[in-house]
Predict the 3D structure of the following.
Amino acid sequence: MTARDTQVQGIFNRITTSYDRVNSLMTLGRHAAWCREVAQRAGVGPGGRVLDIATGTGEIALALRRREPRAEVAGVDFSEKMLETARTKPGADAITWEFADAHSLRFDDESFDAVTHGYLLRNVSDVPRVLAEQVRVLRPGGRVVVLETAPPRGALRLAISAGMSVVLPLLGQVVAGDRRAYDYLKDSTLGFIQPARVAELMREAGFVDVGYESKYLGTNVILWGRKPGS
Ligand SMILES: C[S@@+](CC[C@H](N)C(=O)[O-])C[C@H]1O[C@@H](n2cnc3c(N)ncnc32)[C@H](O)[C@@H]1O
């Protein structure tokens, strides 16, 4: 792991207890619906295997399992604190939770029918490598579904940037008592690449049929793709 990865890991270990509350406030409750949409787009059937990377407090993994109770769901993250919280949630017993760095997964080649992740890519030091790992562990024809933030653009860019610059650190201060950690979340969101570029990187990694849909005034996005083959 690079020094930056270690710093990011430390931030997520610090904000675990406030994460779900701040996330829900920041997205005005939309996060839960986006997790359901990610699960639906992953399209895993009975007996299928799905990997949720950067599972955090487990919301996407739990949505996957609720959508298909006969699927085998694994949730991985490099924050032990986040995983601790995920393990306490209703329904968590049916999911395998484990530590993993998204840059080097321990899973065999072609071992999953789908891979999902929420708010992973803007946090990693090497996006192409993280995407290449996902292509590797997916079976041919397997799907990837990605939830990400997107830097605001267009007419509302200044207003949204200013709003986020005030609201996120303030929520961090009030809800978590940790303004600096939420400063990082604001900076990583505003400094991230646009969805069109993420889609390009997904194609360069080897995914086909890549598409995306913007959410919430373009500040969030769901992207999807497929590993070639069947
Ligand atoms: C903003 S949280 C998102 C959690 C969850 N996916 C969601 O949608 O609410 C980002 C998560 O990514 C994890 N993460 C960041 N970089 C990672 C890496 N290189 N390997 C594994 N997990 C990572 C963090 O520990 C954190 O739990």
The chain has one domain: 3-151+193-226. The mean pLDDT is 94. The two ends are 34 Å apart (CA to CA).
